[in-house]
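== Sequence and structure of one protein ==
=== Format: two labelled lines per protein ===
==== Data for this protein ====
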Amino acid sequence: MSAPTRKIVHVDMDAFYASVEQRDDPALRGQPVVVAWRGARSVVCAASYEARRFGVRSAMPALRAERLCPHAVFVAPDFQRYKAVSRQVREIFARHTELIEPLSLDEAYLDVTRTKTGMPSATATAEAIRAAIREETRLTASAGVAPNKFLAKIASDWRKPDGLFVLKPHQVEAFLTPLPVGRLPGVGKVTERRLGKLGIATVGDLRTLGGEQLETMFGRWGARLHRLSLGIDDNPVEPSRPTMQVSSEDTFPDDLPLDALAPHIERLAEKTWAGYARERERDPQRIARTVVLKLKTADFRILTRSLTLPTPPEGAAALAEVACGLRERVDLPADTLYRLVGVGVSGFADADESLAQTDLFEADRGRR
């Protein structure tokens, strides 16, 4: 007997940070609002729909946003206020289901296959949630309703802002067929270009390759790609998503060469270690053994280097030492300048599992 079809809602607040600012300051309503600190090193946190008409987007350098929209109103971000509104929204979600998977402050997946309210459909639940958000926060949200998470996320973007789009199981394949292949989760620009060389531009084109050919080309990921092209995704909504990485990063006032980064790496290692310590307080059994160094060059190229250790670092100093050492794995010219550095820990696993991996590591090293 097959499992019942899930009913998933993806809720995405509309231009969240900018909308909060416009709500709280009437003078900003109707204006192209850019939430960002001014300055050469700043990036856009959010842009109102009025600013987006000029091409301003999140994560864009603030200087470029100013060039695209010279009359934009820049507002410094206030994350405490945004977090408070996010808590309000999640309280609304919780009235309907306990199966809530937050993705960020402004979006979440909800499994409403069964609800606390007994509403007749997932569509009715999504409409009720959107109405409550509008009434209680004076903000708007868009929602997508679908049989799984990745389809619900695509659907929530379909009628933005302040829209609702419902994708029923029998509509899935026809809906996906004309979409650009880049709309599938995990298909980045590199994979999209590789597929484009094969004449694969849409999800329908991808589907015609078949599972075996995709698996030959991409390994296990190819098999997942084929399933996604058919609209199949069995990943459940996970209310308690385990932490995958703890990290800190910083953008410099002036670009720096690689050999000048040590003091910044050491400072960020302390911040990361403090965050990791808080994570260990919540769950002492989960430890991280992988150290990650992130770099962004002056021309915005992003590099990451990582090292998985036989045992976790013992403190901030050890973390900094490993992260500094990872610079040796950067093979760019010596005169390359960097605008950002980040330090993180990842590879979280339960302590018992990590101990088993360490035993295997030691045994393998003894055979060499």
